[in-house]
Fold this sequence. Notes:
The chain has helices at about 25-35, 40-55, 60-85, 100-110, 120-125, and strands at about 5-10, 10-15. By secondary structure, the protein is mainly alpha-helical. Helix 1 (about 25-35) packs across helix 3 (about 60-85), helix 2 packs across helix 3 (about 60-85) and helix 3 (about 60-85) runs antiparallel to helix 4 (about 100-110).
Amino acid sequence: xxxxxMLKGRRLRLIDYQDARMGPYTYDAASLLRxxxxxxxxxxxxxxxxYLAGRLGEGPEEFRSDFDTMALQRNIKELGxxxxxxxxxxxxxxxxxxxxxxxxxRRTMRREQRHHYVYPVLERYxxxx
Length: 129
């Protein structure tokens, strides 16, 4: 998550205040580049995805597909978290992140042909405001 990256002086530090675990190889990239609390330029996101694919030695299309799947899962999970925090915990500030999460979900689902069959259902019941 973007909030786990901190600057101390001129050095970048990683602070994981939840828990550190092994996960899918695209998890950290999706967490950072599709974080709904950030407003990142889409060209930067795409350039970083290409860069990471090259550094990992993955084919760009395979990495992008795996990245999109992970980002989609994370953004859908975020919507649940934001709803819980706003309604159950009374922390309405989380609602400001909902539009970015929805935009990211829509972009991913429209781009990936394999999601087209479920997109209308998700749009109707989860993404419409």
